[in-house]
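# step 3/5: fold
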Amino acid sequence: MGHFSISDLEQLSGVKAHTIRMWEQRYGLLRPVRTATNIRTYCESDLRRLLNVTTLCARGRRISQVAQLSDEEIQAAVLACCNDVHDYHQQVNGLLAAMLSFDEQRLNQLLSEAGARLGFEKMMLFVAYPLLQRIGLMWLAGTVNPAQEHLLAHMLRQKLLAATDALPSVPATSKRWVLFLPSNELHELALLFMNYVLRARGQHTLYLGQNLPLEELHAVCRAYDPDALATVLTTQPERSRVGEYAQAVANCCPDKLVVLYGPLARQEGLVLPKNCVSPELMTDFLALVAESAPEPVAA
């Protein structure tokens, strides 16, 4: 399913193209096929094998030894060594390989172990988010199966909901946020994580989720009287209408902070209303929240 160029493999694995070629020629590590124009292309099993081999080599195994192992032996060795709390790159590689194999049990195990070692928030920031960025690159290149992406997204969503539910309750007298996604926007993971970090920092959230019409937001703001609003613009609204949408959201609570997160909110030349901000990274959002929040609850 899907075909990768050698530059795709370089970008996704972090291994230089000339090293991939050497491993291929010297050890028969990968088995590319050639197109009618004599260009080598690689399949998902090649990418999985490369990710796993890279993980083992980074842990001190020699490529000459690893190349002699079967795929099953390589996977077993990777599971045994994907436990370095600070080696985020190799944890991401292990998760990506599990996703490509539709190995739900292994994917869940690796995420759970990373959460236990790092704490939930750091697992999301340093492992899950880089993994999602890699998958985004694969999606743009047309080399990821939507079902693979859905498997990971569903698992992360479950973990975000469980982690949020496990937090202590927050009194409604705390700083109050409304979190929502625009009409027809379904990409919810970033908003769920924002909900988690706000509650972990003792702030109250009214989580409204996907696909909220603007007229409903007006009614919510009147009834709930929030201190701030936050939304994520991934695919909605249309790029040319983001400025108009930002103004409409700002008008719902003209004297309150509005956080617009996501790629559409950071397009070049976009002018936002004065009460709107657009953090570039999730860590920027965390810094914004920290300015007026108590210490986070232990994960």
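# step 4/5: annotate
The longest strand covers residues 204-209.
# step 5/5: archive (pending)
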